[in-house]
Amino acid sequence: PLSPQVRNEFYKDTQGVILVYDVGQKESFDALDAWLAEMKQELGPHGNMENVVFVVCANKIDCTKHRSVDESEGRLWAESRGFLYFETSAQTGEGINEMFQTFYSAIIDLCDNGGKRPPSSTGIGFTKEQADAIRRIRNSKDSWDMLGVKPGATRDEVNKAYRKLAVLLHPDKCVAPGSEDAFKAVVNARTALLKNIK
């Protein structure tokens, strides 16, 4: 990374940004939010992040043994912000050409569209509520936490919380990356809790 003094020169008139993290280093993935915040700050009140093409590269996918950020987590982070997402390996070259071709095409579309991202590229097929629920479920520490009920909740409370999440995340209705796993986790959490509630 360049020093902030040098970096801020790059932010003016930016049309495209490639955010790269190492799939084996959770910290590099967690740092993406800070990079975005810095960019927003450098662009100032008149800068518009909507008019920049963002690509998120999950890099080092060749190191499968040490992977700590899975595809659905990275894809959800990117797509919930309207960013393009690619799985790449600088080592083997996998995904690199496709990523650059898509990136350049998106920038050309941006220029053809008067410097604004064409609406189609930002249309995501899932809601913030769905994305937030998947993240919360992924990070929950136990079944109670997963359903968002307090330990000792009644059968009815568990079922009500379950129904709300099941409707939100059902794979037939929800296209957010990771929704299928989140839905299964919610089904299992409900089963586990109901076993122990008399």
UniProtKB/TrEMBL annotation:
GO cellular component, as recorded: endoplasmic reticulum membrane
GO biological process: cellular response to misfolded protein
SMART domains: DnaJ, RAB, RAS
Superkingdom to which the source organism belongs: Eukaryota
Annotated ranges, domain J: 142-198
UniProt keyword list: Nucleotide-binding
Entries under Pfam families matching the protein: DnaJ, Ras
The protein, known as: DnaJ subfamily C member 27
